[in-house]
Amino acid sequence: PRTSIPPFHRCWHRGIPREPGAHWTEPGCQSCTCQGGRVLCDTVSCSVPCSHPLPALAGGCCPTCTGCLHEGVARADGDVFSPSDGNCTVCVCLAGNVSCLSPECPPGSCPSPSLADCCSCNPEKCNFRGRTYAHGARFSLDGDDCTTCVCQGGEVECSFTPCPMLDCPQHQRHLGPGQCCSTCRDPPAPAGCFLDDNDMEFPVGQIWSPGDPCELCICQADGSVSCQRMDCVETCPYPIRIPGQCCPDCSAGCTYMGRTFSNNETFPSELDPCLSCICLVR
Hints:
It is a single chain. This protein has one helix at 113-118; strands at 11-13, 16-18, 23-26, 30-35, 38-43, 67-70, 73-76, 80-81, 90-94, 97-101, 126-128, 131-133, 138-141, 144-152, 155-160, 173-174, 183-184, 192-195, 200-203, 207-208, 215-219, 225-229, 254-256, 259-261, 266-268, 276-278. It is mainly β. Among the domains are: 11-43, Complement Module, domain 1 (Ribbon); 62-101, Complement Module, domain 1, CATH 2.10.70; 130-159, no CATH class; 193-229, Complement Module, domain 1 (Ribbon), CATH 2.10.70; 237-281, no CATH class. The longest helix has 6 residues, at 113-118. The protein is rod-shaped.
């Protein structure tokens, strides 16, 4: 025959009888038990054996490892995915645990475009003459400021410092001590006038005619040339023009109808043979 349980061993909780040793969960995740007619309750203690559990199901108190919660996104067990900030990283959800794998990237520049899309390649450093330089570093060669070197992906490239174009002739260029590029010297003070068109040089104060007998030029002290045309003052109706002379000569004779006559010379007129002409210098 069944042995009846003494009433004082049962528990009454919120109008519901509980047998001695009974366990149940109250709202608010309280775990209760009936012991010797008394109800003892405590907060549910959850033991979660996974790293990325899902939140507790409706009516439950403890997270579940039947899936994964990664970066706020619920993943089903066995899902394969890439994280939002991963560069070609692949993750998998297994029993509440998330495992991620990233591609192995070689040092230096990537050997192929496919790896370059996934790898964050760190350019190689340069070992040059016993010193190490970072990628992109610029330095001079053994203290020579005229040579600039740069580290590019493990290789060092050196080049001479570019010099500006000079607008002075070669004999006026000068390379000073410690300088990389030549500079133009100040031109020496002119000792005369140099004419580039006919490669002639005149001393200061020299007067000459450049080709026109009515034009005279003089060499100035600063090396410049000053030219001026002459004005003919003496005039006469039949002067003689001497080649190479600017002004007509009225004292050497007369020019008449294309012929030249000396002073006091008499000759017949070509317009009227009955007329006689004479050249008079006045």
